[in-house]
Amino acid sequence: MPSLKTVLKIGTILGEGTKAYTVEKVTYDAIYLRGHPDARRGEGINLNGVLRIIPTIVIEDILRGLESEKINLDDIVRKKGDEQKYDLFSVLGVDHDKYILGYDSTIYKICEFCFNYKPDASLLINAVISQNVLPKPFLLLAGISGTGKTRFVREQAAAHNKGDSNYCLIPVRPDWHEPSDLLGYISRIGLEGPCYVVTKLLVFIVAAWQNAFFSVEENKLICKHAAEMTPYWLCLDEMNLAPVEQYFADYLSVLETRKWENEEYSCDPLLVSDTIKLLNADMPDIGQEKLRKDLKLIGEENDALWAYFLNNGISIPPNLIVAGTVNMDETTHGFSRKVIDRAFTIDFGVFYPNDYDHYFKSPIRPKTLSFPMLSQVSQEDLIDVKADINGQKSIDFLKAINTVLKGTPFELAYRALNELLLAVVSFNPSTVEELQAVWDDFLMTKVLPRIDGDTEKLSNSVDHNSSDILSALLDVIDISFKEILIKNQRLDLLRENKDEKEKPLMISCRSKQKLEWMKARLTLNGFTTFWP
Length: 532
Fold this sequence. Notes:
Elements: H1 4-7, E1 13-14, E2 21-26, E3 30-35, E4 51-55, H2 56-67, H3 88-92, H4 97-100, H5 104-115, H6 124-129, E5 138-142, H7 149-158, E6 167-171, H8 180-183, E7 185-187, E8 195-197, H9 200-212, E9 213-217, E10 220-223, E11 232-237, H10 244-247, H11 249-255, E12 259-261, E13 264-266, E14 269-271, H12 273-277, H13 287-294, H14 303-312, E15 314-315, E16 320-326, H15 337-342, E17 344-347, H16 348-351, E18 364-366, H17 392-405, H18 414-427, H19 432-447, E19 452-454, H20 469-480, H21 482-487, E20 490-491, E21 495-497, E22 506-507, H22 510-525, E23 527-529
Helix pairs in contact: 2-5, 17-20, 18-19, 19-22, 20-22
């Protein structure tokens, strides 16, 4: 059930005629409804209509009862003389009698509307797309030149039928060394005072916020329901032509502050409010007003969002997905583990291989992906995951992997466990084989990209039965992936059959093949790395 703030929009009319109520405001504590001016409800004359205030906790508890089928809508409206026979809140195990007496029909209207709520039909495509959510909104697409990495990002954006409005391509320059190259800066050149030099990225971030924005209440920014938000895809082309740790430092830090709580999103700012307030607020053609114009926030409909930015800064929108295309050669920079730990790394040639035989018409296509609505996993988030209902299987798997990596530069910490559990929740495996497919892709996207070095660096000091870390990891895979290795196939989580979507697309174990490739490279060259 979406949050009440996204369902009960200001101006929503509940009921018909003079018995109708109009939603004036929804806060964390209460729903404010205004009655019809011509209604006579025995509450005194009010030319604007009677104001009724219903605690949100009452509606939330009743809606939970409706969803669990403990009650039905008709149970909300009490009939005279029936109070002793049927007590609505005793059934629900809560005590709200003091709130409902005399307001039962009003509460019925609210619950009926919320319980039967469906997003606008034009938004249903996003409701379907959101089933294939990413564990992280930051991707590294690694592969040799010409494999289709940039086109992949453009097609992901195009799947949402928004034209080019939700796609932005920014070619990275080799001379970028600080965040201002991407986010802009204050210029004091000229006699009219400081002005902010905006960038293509900052304009795109604000556009994503305009799509996600619902309202501002109590200085908190309320987002639309996920089905009503469009993913905005930013492609940083040739991302590692410049040192990512330098020019992308602000994003990498702020990315870890994203937080979803009770369907409410928060994040630290990329552009802090103090910087905006340094600009002149009085002169219309420069300073703050120029920044507002450059960010395309002119208009009354953008007043609330602009005011929020002035007071709180501009943060990462929940529907922004950043995808960096990556080539590894003599002209590019490598990635530190700080970057890899925060990214969802895809070896493009492995996850989306080029097939010459199906160049004109491929029977396989990438699944359409969307932004995550989770940044930190709790036990409650895992309840619906049939294959790992409490996350313990995944925890044991990562402990086995980390035993091999213990004492090396590649050892994993709490962030890795959270990233694994995010993947488990996102892909929601229902069988042991599907769970092992999630683990397989986790190794490919989060663990193996961190590993590189020569024979000495990769020597295994923990497991004396294996000569190196790569061999020890292969031993763990042989034990942990028994089911998919016996069948020599597993579910592809990121691609599907084009004409037979209901028929699962099966592939072989990716991480085992990659480790064997890395091991052969180590034997041949005395050095190995994940990157192609």
